[in-house]
C-alpha cells in the first residue's frame, strides 16, 4: 500500500516511496516500513542497474549465482579468473586455448588470452575501447 493506504499500481524500487501512485526516490536506498510501498520483499534496484552479472535477484537481494566458481568468493586458483561460472587460466598458463570464444574479431593467442582488433578491449574483446582517438 502507498502512504495514504491506496494500492500501488507501480512497483517501487528499494528506497523509493510511492506518492500519488508514482515512485520517488527515498533515502539511503533502504527498505522501510509504513511509508514505503509494501510488498513481501523489496525489489532489486532495477533503476540502478540491478544486480551484477554474477548475481541473481532472489527475494529482493542480489545473491551470487551457484556455479563451479563465483566471483564473490574468489574460488579460482591464483592464475585463473572466474568467467561465466568457469575458472579459466590467465596468460600465465601454457597452450593456446580459449574455452569461451574471443568476440568482435579477436584472436585467441594464448591460454585464454585474446588479442583484440582495434577499437575493442577486455578479456574476450567484449568492450569498446573508449580511449581510442578517432
TrEMBL record:
Name of the protein described by the UniProt record: EGF-like domain-containing protein
Q: Which organism is it from?
A: Rotaria socialis
Q: Name one Pfam family in it.
A: EGF
**Which InterPro entries does the record match to this protein?**
EGF
User: Acyltransferase among the record's keywords?
Assistant: no
Q: Does the UniProt entry include the keyword Disulfide bond?
A: yes
Q: Which residues does the UniProt record annotate as the domain EGF-like?
A: 94-126
Q: Which cysteines are joined by disulfide bonds?
A: 98-108, 116-125
Lineage at the top is: Eukaryota, Metazoa, Spiralia, Gnathifera, Rotifera
What keywords does the record list, in alphabetical order? Disulfide bond, EGF-like domain
Annotated membrane-spanning segments are: none
Amino acid at each position: 500500500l502507498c502512504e495514504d493506504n491506496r494500492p500501488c499500481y507501480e512497483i517501487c524500487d528499494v528506497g523509493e516511496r510511492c506518492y500519488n501512485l508514482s515512485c520517488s526516490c527515498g533515502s539511503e536506498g533502504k527498505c522501510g516500513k509504513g511509508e514505503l510501498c509494501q510488498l513481501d520483499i523489496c525489489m532489486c534496484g532495477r533503476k540502478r542497474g540491478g544486480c551484477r552479472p554474477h548475481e541473481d535477484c532472489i527475494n529482493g537481494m542480489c545473491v551470487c549465482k551457484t556455479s563451479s566458481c563465483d566471483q564473490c568468493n574468489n574460488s579460482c586458483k591464483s592464475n585463473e579468473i572466474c568467467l561465466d561460472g568457469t575458472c579459466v587460466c590467465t596468460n600465465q598458463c601454457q597452450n593456446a586455448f580459449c574455452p569461451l570464444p574471443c568476440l568482435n574479431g579477436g584472436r585467441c593467442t594464448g591460454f585464454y588470452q585474446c588479442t583484440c582488433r582495434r577499437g575493442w578491449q577486455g578479456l574476450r574483446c567484449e568492450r569498446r575501447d573508449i580511449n581510442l582517438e578517432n
